[in-house]
């Protein structure tokens, strides 16, 4: 790929005697927002820490703008990292936090002043530089952390689950903030998360890892609409797995392998459906979840609006054949 800024080539990461992710190949385009998404323990953070040089690669190469970094120490990679909780020095002001790496590198005072002021202005925190982290909002601390990573000239920033301790509302605004800064400042982002909403809302490309290997690489829509494996289908969004006889009945054709249908694709009140008993209705605000029993099988549907069926009643249930995701995998 011509405009690839970062290239992971057969990268194998882990600990002495333990391979965590094997043979990872990824080309990251300049200015892209790439998320590494996967369940806890799948190796996302280990990949990120290896790219940053905080741990050695077990095999393969990490190439940044054509330069092989694999054996370089972190300070010579020119890659920034934003940690969970931002890891700002609490006793230092925002200015001192941002200036830290430049001071360690013994840059002239005037240059440090200029570079910190420039990056702080770009990140919208020029008026916060005298404050210590404890007296800044979470969003301001996040900007300081990003400014601190960019001030050394890094064009690639790694984010290690920076949103994981936030409540849903703050998390949503921080996502927008990171995305806005990334667009405005033009850096390339590699963002580790186990949260599908983080990945779907921010990423140009999502790399889904599972048990040490890549399940699928694609944009959010592709992963959601065209999941390559049953794992992706179950991991992103809410899906029902259909037993083969029920799948055949609902989809009107014999089904080989595992089949899934998303909750929002289960149609209730269809004119030509099959009867389903309503077991439970859960009002969740924007939508409701309806748990049903159809021919002895449990199935859930998602309904928007207030016209909800009563528990115990029978409704007509149908599924558009094209809405089903079928995988040529042995039924579990
Ligand atoms: N020091 C270690 N020695 C051996 N294995 C380790 C060590 N530290 C972590 N692991 C294992 O490496 C695997 C990957 O851990 P990692 O933190 O990269 O996962 P993750 O996907 O980032 O998970 P989480 O979202 O929970 O942080 C896990 O199975 C973990 O048990």
TrEMBL record:
Gene3D superfamilies: P-loop containing nucleotide triphosphate hydrolases
Family matches, as InterPro entries: AAA+_ATPase, ABC_transporter-like_ATP-bd, ABC_transporter-like_CS, ABC_transpr_MalK/UgpC-like, Mo/tungstate-bd_C_term_dom, P-loop_NTPase, Transp-assoc_OB_typ2
Pfam family, one: TOBE_2
Gene Ontology CC terms: ATP-binding cassette (ABC) transporter complex, substrate-binding subunit-containing
A GO molecular function held by the record: ATP hydrolysis activity
Superkingdom of the organism of origin: Bacteria
Keywords: ATP-binding, Cell inner membrane, Cell membrane, Membrane, Nucleotide-binding, Transport
Subcellular location: Cell inner membrane
Record domain ABC transporter: where: 6-236
Membrane topology listed for this record: Peripheral membrane protein
Keyword Nucleotide-binding among UniProt keywords: yes
Main location: membrane
Family according to the record: Belongs to the ABC transporter superfamily.
Name this polypeptide is given: Spermidine/putrescine ABC transporter ATP-binding protein
Organism of origin: Rhizobium sophoriradicis
């Amino acid at each position: 790929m011509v405009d690839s800024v970062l290239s992971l080539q057969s990268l194998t990461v882990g600990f002495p005697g333990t391979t965590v992710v094997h043979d990872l190949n990824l080309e990251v385009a300049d200015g892209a927002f790439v998320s590494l998404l996967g369940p806890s323990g799948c190796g996302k953070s280990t990949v990120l820490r290896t790219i940053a040089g905080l741990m050695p690669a077990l095999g393969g190469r990490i190439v940044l703008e054509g330069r092989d970094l694999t054996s370089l120490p972190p300070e010579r990679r020119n890659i920034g990292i934003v940690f969970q909780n931002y890891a700002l020095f609490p006793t230092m002001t925002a200015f001192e936090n941002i200036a830290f790496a430049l001071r360690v590198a013994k840059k002239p005072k005037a240059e440090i002043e200029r570079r910190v002021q420039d990056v702080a202005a770009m990140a919208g925190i020029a008026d916060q530089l005298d404050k210590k982290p404890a007296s800044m909002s979470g969003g301001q601390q996040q900007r300081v952390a990003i400014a601190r990573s960019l001030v050394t000239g890094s064009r690639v920033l790694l984010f290690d689950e920076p949103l994981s301790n936030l409540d849903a509302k703050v998390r949503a605004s921080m996502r927008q903030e990171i995305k806005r800064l990334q667009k405005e400042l033009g850096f390339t982002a590699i963002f580790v998360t186990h949260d599908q909403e983080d990945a779907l809302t921010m990423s140009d490309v999502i790399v889904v890892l599972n048990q040490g290997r890549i399940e699928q690489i694609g944009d959010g829509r592709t992963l959601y609409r065209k999941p390559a494996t049953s794992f992706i289908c179950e991991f992103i969004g809410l899906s029902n797995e259909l037993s083969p006889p029920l799948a055949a009945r609902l989809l009107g054709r014999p089904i080989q392998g595992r089949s899934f249908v998303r909750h929002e694709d289960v149609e209730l009140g269809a004119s030509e459906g099959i009867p389903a008993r309503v077991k439970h209705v859960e009002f969740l605000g924007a939508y409701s979840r309806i748990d049903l029993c159809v021919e002895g099988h449990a199935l859930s549907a998602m309904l928007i609006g207030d016209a909800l069926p009563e528990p115990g009643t029978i409704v007509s249930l149908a599924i558009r054949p094209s809405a089903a995701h079928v995988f040529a995998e042995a039924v579990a």
